[in-house]
Every structure is written in structure tokens, then in C-alpha cells.
Design brief:
Blueprint (H helix, E strand, L loop, with lengths): L3 E2 L2 H23 L4 E7 L3 H17 L2 E7 L5 H13 L5 E4 L9 H5 L13 H9 L7 H14 L7 E5 L6 H10 L3 E5 L6 H5 L4 E4 L17 E4 L3 E4 L9 E4 L4 H4 L5 E2 L6 H20 L4
Parallel strand pairs: 1-11, 2-3, 2-4, 5-6, 5-7, 7-8, 8-11
Antiparallel strand pairs: 9-10
Helix pairs in contact: 1-10, 2-10, 6-7, 6-10
Bound molecules: guanine (GUN).
Guanine binds next to strand 4 and helix 6.
């Protein structure tokens, strides 16, 4: 039997509706509209699409957005100055610097210029520290979205489940591990140097693939009935005979083989992607409230 497909678009819609209601309440009770500033450096096509989707979703919910597109050869000091200016700007509630930055820029130094109270990506040292200490704060969007999707498939209580995360990035792997740990899961972080990766994956009740390698996780890496969360978004050549486009998006999981073994699985596109954006919108509202002591 084929796995249940976890509908990320539908889950994102549910969360976006809640965020919209929260926003309208803030406008009514506190008389301001939360505002998200998005900074994009350069012309990477994938990043352009992500930023466009974030700005569009903000508009649909009613969140104000400011978009800053800087040239690919932007200097470190100029980018840091822009982020500092947004950190000081009282009308800005959330700041997102789209990653990856062009190679000549020091990403960590830029991130640290984000006011932690406006860090809607949960990437600053302060946000990451709070997460590891289990304190309330702004949490990374893709990991939060992954937990919501797992719960939508398995129910709210994930206690005792074995979670294997492939990938140890600061944007996904590490924060995802801490979020699943908070749900009382037993968490393994696997990565490119992990021995017996396949065997370790086969032990997972929830398998989170976040390595950025197209179709790496095959069906025979998946335990029968497991929940598979595919975080990868990889653009590859489309060799299908009836292909309408030269490229297509695929995940880190070989969906066709994995869906025959898994109990539940997220598709790419339409899985984790929309949830990342929905969590970003929710974080913008949380940031707006945190900074004004409204929570
Ligand atoms: N690039 C890919 N995903 C993300 C994300 O969630 N946040 C940022 N800032 N950059 C990204």
C-alpha cells in the first residue's frame, strides 16, 4: 500500500489562517501592523523565488513587507550597515536575510547584526542558545514546519519515537534535532560522515532528510510505515519524455520508491516548503509581540 501524502500546502493554509486572525487582533487591539523586512543579495534564481513567495504570502496575510535587493558584489560593511539600520528601525518587526549569501560575504557576521528580537529565522547566537536551553524565543522556520507536519500525520504526541535527521546545518539539521527532542523523541543526527547511514535511517520512526542531495534516500532506507519528512529542494534536469520544462524540483528522498514503504511522506514541492513560509509569517507576529512585551 502506498503512503499517505502529507499535504504541506493544506497545513500551511491552516497556520496562515491562524496567523491572519492573530494579525487582525493585533491591529484592532494595539493599532499597528507587523512588518517583515527581507534582504536578498544577488540574483540566485532559487533565492529570488523563495523571497517572492515570502513577500507574496505576507501580503496575503496582511503583514507589511519591505524587500531590499542588493547587488551581488555588495560589500560586507554595506550589508551589515543595512541589517543594522533595519535592526534599529522601530517600524520593522522581523528581519530575514535570504541565504546563502554570495561567497565573498561573511554570513555569520551579517546574521549577528540582526536584533535577536527581530530574528524571525532563529539564526542568531541568542536565538540558537535559547532553543538549546528550551527557552521561549524565535525558532528556525523549516524545523518548526517539519515538526508540525510530523504531528499532522502522527498526532500531537511524538513521545518516544526514534527520529533520524540527515543533515547538521544551522538552518535545519541542528535546530530540528532540538525541536524533536523537545517533543520527547529519541534523536539521531546523521550526516555525510556517518557510518552505516542506511541502517541508521531504517531505525527511524520519523526520517527527516535535509542534506541537499537529490533523491539520496531510497525506499529501502525507510522502515515500513515510517513518517518521511523531505526538506530537500533540488532543481535537476527533467528527462521525462512528456517534460514541459527542462528542469524540475525533487527532494532529498526518492519519492517514488519511498512512498511504497513509508506510512506517511511529504512531497516536493508542496511539503515542507510552504510550511517554512507559514512559520516565518507566524514568527513575524511572535517577534512583533515579543518586542512590545505583548506575550
Ligand atoms: N535559504 C533557504 N531556506 C532559508 C530560510 O529558511 N531562511 C533563510 N534566511 N534563507 C534560506
Amino acid at each position: 500500500m502506498s503512503a499517505q501524502i502529507i499535504d504541506g500546502k493544506q497545513q500551511a493554509q491552516i497556520l496562515n489562517q491562524k496567523t491572519k486572525e492573530e494579525l487582525q487582533k493585533i491591529e484592532k487591539e494595539h493599532g499597528f501592523t507587523p512588518c517583515l523586512a527581507v534582504v536578498l543579495v544577488g540574483e540566485d534564481p532559487a533565492s529570488q523565488v523563495y523571497v517572492r513567495n515570502k513577500v507574496r504570502t505576507a501580503g496575503e496575510i496582511g503583514i507589511k513587507s519591505l524587500e531590499f535587493v542588493l547587488p551581488a558584489d555588495t560589500k560586507q560593511e554595506d550589508l551589515e550597515a543595512k541589517v543594522k539600520e533595519l535592526s534599529k528601525d522601530e517600524s520593522v518587526d522581523g528581519i530575514l536575510v535570504q541565504l546563502p549569501l554570495p561567497k565573498h560575504l561573511n554570513q555569520d557576521a551579517v546574521i549577528e547584526k540582526i536584533d535577536p528580537l527581530k530574528d524571525v529565522d532563529g539564526l542568531t547566537e541568542k536565538s540558537a542558545g535559547k532553543l538549546s536551553l528550551g527557552k521561549i524565543g524565535l525558532r528556525a522556520c523549516t524545523p518548526s514546519g517539519s515538526v508540525i507536519l510530523a504531528k499532522s500525520a502522527l498526532g500531537d504526541d511524538l513521545t518516544g519515537l526514534n527520529v533520524v535527521i540527515i543533515g547538521r546545518s544551522i538552518l535545519v539539521g541542528k535546530p530540528a534535532a532540538l525541536l524533536f527532542l523537545e517533543e520527547n523523541c529519541t534523536v539521531t543526527i546523521a550526516h555525510s560522515k556517518t557510518k552505516n547511514l542506511e541502517e541508521i535511517c531504517k531505525n527511524a520512526d520519523i526520517l527527516v532528510a535535509a542534506v541537499g542531495r537529490p533523491l539520496m534516500v531510497k525506499g529501502d532506507w525507510v522502515k515500513k510505515g515510517a513518517c518521511v519528512i523531505d526538506v530537500g529542494i533540488n532543481r535537476v534536469e527533467n528527462n521525462a519524455v512528456d517534460a514541459k520544462s527542462k528542469t524540475k524540483l525533487v527532494g532529498d528522498v526518492d519519492f517514488e520508491s519511498a512512498k511504497e514503504i513509508a506510512g506517511q511522506i511529504t512531497p516536493v514541492p508542496g511539503g515542507v516548503g510552504p510550511m517554512t513560509i507559514a512559520c516565518l509569517m507566524q514568527n513575524t507576529i511572535i517577534a512583533a509581540k515579543l518586542r512590545r512585551n505583548l506575550v
